[in-house]
Amino acid sequence: MRRQSTTPRRGRPLGAPTVVKLFGELDFPNAARTNGRLDPVTAGDHPHMVLDLTQVDFLDCGGIGVLCRARRRTRAHGGRLSLVITDPRFLRLLDTVGLTGSFDILGAPPDTARPADDGPCTAGGDGSVTAAAAPHS
Q: Could you tell me which residues are beta bridge partners of residue 56?
């Protein structure tokens, strides 16, 4: 009879997070485009993503849907998602819809990230910072 190890197996450790800086309006009209730019980041094994919402001017139910989709996809691939939120209105909105406990909320992006570039949102777990989101209306 072969004995199985009782030592818990650990998955691949999470590397430095990919920080995606969202800007403009995170709303229903822009949700599909934003999802399309976030999907590659959440598609790999064990994605570690931080969504920086400090430059988001407006957040509605469509934006909440984007956040929930990113969280669901990240978890489905064994990863982790955090949000950088400094606007008390957005914190209140998450609380109102019962999602405050569903996200890791940070007050600032992690120190492991490099400054944001203006390029498209691309996949990566190397601590790079990418930009994505809706234009200012």
A: 24
Against a cut of 0.85, is the pTM above it? no
Closest CA to 83 of 111, 47, 66, 108: 108
Helix, strand or coil for residue 90?
helix
Question: 75 by DSSP, 3-state: which?
Answer: helix
- pLDDT digit string (tens) for the chain, length 137 residues: 433 333 333 344 456 889 999 999 999 999 999 999 999 999 889 999 999 999 999 999 999 999 999 999 999 999 999 999 999 999 999 999 999 899 999 999 887 653 334 333 332 333 334 444 433 34
